[in-house]
Amino acid sequence: MRRLLLVVLLATVLAVAGCSGPPQPVPTSPPPLPNDVLVQLDDDLTEAGRDAIEERLQTAPGVGPVTFATREQNYQRFRELYRDRPDLLEGVSPDDMADTFRARFFDRAEADSAAAAVRELAGVAEASVLSLPTPTATPS
Fold this sequence. Notes:
It is built from 5 helices and 4 strands; from the N terminus they run H-E-H-E-H-H-E-H-E. It is of the alpha+beta class and 140 residues long.
């Protein structure tokens, strides 16, 4: 009887363990943090120039999503981000903003390379890499 109970218990444990699938590897390092290439465009940029910048970003090695924002969209985002800081909002208008592209990379070297490549194109006022800070442990 005891042997039968042990066999049933062992079979149950093995069946439950088998339901979870093969063991998953434990990550040894955190996932890479994104690096965004922010490209500010000149006011007098032509549509052909804008298309060339977008194509250069879209075809860069390691690129993720590429998004475009107009100066008006950037102004609204600025107002939302700093809604609690009226001193920063005072005197700022959509004319103070630029149209922008933002391209996501997870490899810093690829982001740096893409930023350097678009800086050479006509119509680019600035291209910079924005990296998220490395998370730090919070005290408990």
